[in-house]
Amino acid sequence: MENVYEGYYDFNLKTYDAYEDNKVYEPYELTLKIKDYNNDGFNDIAFKGKSVLIRGRTPDGEWYDFTTINGKEVYYSADHPFQKTPVEYIFLYDKKSDHFKAKEDYAEKYNIFE
């Protein structure tokens, strides 16, 4: 069986994430959408939801579990996330290869590398 979805080729993109390491998805399994995003007459696929950071992250990429705000320690978790970011990963159907290829570099766009 041939895998025609190329989401794992360059950025190891997950479409399901419930493991509470640094982030999870909301919902855990991103919502699948099928639509012709580029109006070429072929249906494309997209995965949509939110990336939920359950740990804080510095601009340098260092992770932390808590911070102090107004003299109180604030701890981050799945119930009290650091940040929620809407995500949409679109994969356009390529007629030549019969594969779905990423519309853009999502690793760079959403800072996927951890």
How would you portray this structure in words?
By secondary structure, this protein is mostly beta strands. 4% of the residues lie in helices and 45% in strands. It has one helix and eight strands, in the order ββββββββα. A four-stranded antiparallel beta sheet has the order 1-2-7-8, with no helix packed on it. A hairpin with a 4-residue loop joins strand 7 and strand 8. The radius of gyration is 17 Å and the shape is elongated. The mean pLDDT is 86.
Summarize the structure.
The protein is mostly beta strands. It contains one helix and eight strands; from the N terminus they run E-E-E-E-E-E-E-E-H.
Helix and strand topology:
Elements: E1 23-35, E2 44-53, E3 56-57, E4 63-64, E5 66-69, E6 72-75, E7 83-94, E8 99-102, H1 106-110
Antiparallel strand pairs: 1-2, 2-7, 3-4, 5-6, 7-8
List keywords for this structure.
114 residues, mainly beta, two-stranded antiparallel ribbon, 8 strands, 4% helix
> Which shape, going by the Cα principal axes?
elongated
> Which parts are unreliable, with pLDDT below 50 for 5 consecutive residues or more?
none
Structural category: mainly beta
Q: List the strand order in the largest sheet.
A: 1-2-7-8
Mean of residue pLDDT values:
86
State the helix count. Answer: 1
Largest sheet descriptor: 4 strands, antiparallel
Order of helices and strands: EEEEEEEEH
Distance between the termini: 31 Å
The helix content is under 10%
Strand content: 35-45%
Extended strand count: 8
Rounded Rg: 17 Å
